[in-house]
Write a structure and sequence with these properties.
Layout: E1 4-16, E2 21-33, E3 37-41, H1 48-55, E4 63-68, E5 71-72, H2 78-88, E6 89-92, H3 104-113, H4 121-134, H5 150-162, E7 168-172, H6 180-195, E8 200-203, H7 207-210, E9 215-220, E10 223-225
Parallel strand pairs: 3-8, 3-9, 6-7, 7-8
Antiparallel strand pairs: 1-2, 1-4, 4-5, 9-10
Length: 250
């Protein structure tokens, strides 16, 4: 039986103001297993960014349970969430998010340098160079990001995401800033990583790339649908009840 990496049950996210409540996610149930490649697509405003933020512990849910490798993480403090995020989750962003003042080597090494336990220098160097080799960029280790093309920068971003051996790789529109040739190359690389055992969850607007995943899900109005449009989850946020004394007579 494959190891369960991610388990969400009844996840909701509500943004409240004095005037109104916005229900961004409505009872999300989602399980991701070791070796999965899951794509999530849907129209703007459907909740994709919110779901990705919760998966990556960049935000906390309003309700429900979220477990990473069996550990409940839905109620962590900000500092504890940051530690778990650094150790368990790798991010690949549309905008690369590399630091121009650092070399390629130092950009890739960043997640290891923020670990709670110091990574020995020799191990750090070996892991960084191994990840650069995976994306065929060892020859650029001493360069800075602004000396690289967009496609090369995305490869460096992939190496940085992999260096911590994350339980899950979260991929946010990885081809959004690339031309079709470089976009295809990056997607081929992600598929190869998945074939070699990396667990991925990707948000994308591009149906061509969504179809490359082994599991394709749709998000609509804060709910996950299967490929045929059937709701995947049974959990839903209960409708609020109005106390009898507050009900308005017709």
């Amino acid at each position: 039986m494959r190891e369960q990496k991610i388990n969400m049950q009844g996840i909701t996210k509500v943004y409240a103001t004095d005037e109104m409540e916005t229900h961004a996610l409505r009872g999300i149930d989602l399980a991701i297993y070791a070796g999965d490649f899951v794509s999530i697509c849907g129209p703007s405003g459907c909740g994709k960014s919110t779901l990705l933020s919760l998966l990556g512990l960049l935000d906390m849910p309003s309700g429900g349970s979220y477990q990473i490798e069996g550990k409940e993480v839905s109620g962590l403090s900000l500092s504890e969430a940051a530690y778990i995020r650094n150790e368990k989750i790798g991010f690949i962003f549309q905008s690369f998010n590399l630091i121009d003042e650092l070399t390629v080597f130092d950009n890739v090494a960043l997640p290891l340098r923020y670990r709670r336990q110091t990574v020995p220098k020799a191990e750090l160097e070996a892991r960084v160079m191994a990840c650069l080799k995976t994306v065929d960029m060892t020859h650029r280790a001493g360069h800075r990001p602004n000396q690289l093309s967009g496609g090369q920068q995305q490869r460096i971003a992939i190496a940085r995401a992999l260096v911590g051996s994350p339980a899950l790789l979260l991929v946010d529109e990885p081809t959004g800033n690339l031309d079709s040739r470089n976009g295809d190359a990056v997607m081929d690389m992600l598929c190869e990583l998945n074939n070699n055992g990396t667990t991925l969850c990707m948000v994308t607007h591009d149906p061509r790339y969504a179809d490359m995943a082994s599991r394709k899900l749709h998000l609509l109005d804060g709910r996950i649908l299967d490929a045929d449009g059937t709701p995947l989850q049974q959990t839903s946020r209960p409708e609020p009840t109005i106390p009898p004394l507050l009900q308005v007579a017709p």
